[in-house]
Design brief:
Helix content: over 70%
Strand content: under 5%
Structural class: mainly alpha
Order of helices and strands: HHH
Number of domains: 1
Shape: rod-shaped
Length: 165
Amino acid sequence: RCDMFTLQQRVQVEKRARDTAEENIQEELGQCHGALERLEPFCTDMGCKETLEQLQHSLTVLAAAVERATSAAEKLGAVHQEARMSRAAEVMVQHVENLKRHHLREHTELEEMKRLIQQNSRNRQLAETQDDMEPRLRPHPLMRTFQQGSARRRVSIAVIPKQLL
């Protein structure tokens, strides 16, 4: 977030620096061309003129090379930025996947707790209806104790009915 506040300023500073460097290179190349043109009247023999033409050709090649280098530098900067953004996107995708897994785990636990609470309330209702039944139809007291003991081990204290406590 801090980088976002200064991003526009940094972009402008870098653009100015790039433009200044390009202008300086173009100015130097222009001065070299000017110097070669000033030397041209003083070259009277053929060897001197050939050397002068080679220098002018070399300056032209150098100017083209500077243009290619500038273009390649911009492409390299774009590729570096793309790599940074790609890594940031990977991190975000990984974070979203972690959140999904966490949500699924929480949802599964919630559904399990709902199921246990419903089962517990059904058991309580069943126990209340069995209390109303005749004594001969009631299950054996040891069997009931065993069922209550296993329910205590499976469910958290928050869902154990008040009768069992």
